[in-house]
Design goal:
Strand content: 5-15%
Number of helices: 5
Shape: globular
EC number: 3.1.3.48
Strand order of the largest sheet: 2-1-3-4
Pfam families: LMWPc
CATH superfamily: Response regulator
Enzyme class: hydrolase
InterPro entries: LMW_PTPase, Ptyr_pPase, Ptyr_pPase_sf, Tyr_phospatase_low_mol_wt
Radius of gyration: 14 Å
Distance between the termini: 24 Å
CATH architecture: 3-Layer(aba) Sandwich
Largest sheet: 4 strands, parallel
Structural class: alpha/beta
CATH class: Alpha Beta
Oligomer: single chain
GO molecular function: protein tyrosine phosphatase activity
């Protein structure tokens, strides 16, 4: 089974949102991919998905239950076939934590926002979460294609 990992800062907004979008598409397409999410920081460890993210995900038909924020480890990364981070500094940090593991930027798979960080909605209101979800949905087809095909990075390592 192929393993796909999403990583953001605290694992309460962006990475669990991406995980839920990926799960739904994986299920709909019958793909053999296991997906998980983590945070770089441990400050939110054990917390559920942010309630604003829950509302946006629920309104869009995605699963919102059974999440506890987790901090990523080098073992989590080494077990992955593809790791998707949401900000460029996170890509660099994760590549340092697990050299040789393919780590890519989420928006490198979003045709409209290649090279840009995924906006962090935590500091704002519902519109920020809706925009973040929209960017995740735009990037997801390319991410799933990359992780299920002979892998070619969106950007050179």
């Amino acid at each position: 089974m192929t393993k796909l990992v999403f990583v953001c800062w605290g694992n309460i907004c962006r990475s669990p949102m991406a995980e839920r979008v990926a799960e739904k598409l994986i299920d709909e397409q019958g793909l053999d991919v296991e997906v998980s999410s983590f945070g770089i920081s441990d400050e939110e460890r054990g917390n559920p998905i942010d309630l604003r993210a829950v509302r946006v995900l629920d309104d869009a038909g995605y699963r919102t239950d059974a999440h506890e924020a987790r901090q990523v480890t080098s073992a989590d990364l080494r077990d992955a076939d593809l790791v998707i981070a949401v900000e460029p500094f996170q890509v660099a940090r994760l590549r340092g934590l697990a050299p040789g593991v393919p780590v890519e930027l989420l928006n490198d798979y979003n045709p409209e926002k290649k090279g840009e960080p995924l906006d962090d909605p935590w500091y704002g209101g519902p519109a920020g979460f809706e925009s973040t979800l929209s960017d995740i949905e735009a990037a997801m087809p390319g991410i799933l294609e990359a992780v299920t095909a002979e892998w070619h990075p969106a950007t050179p390592a």
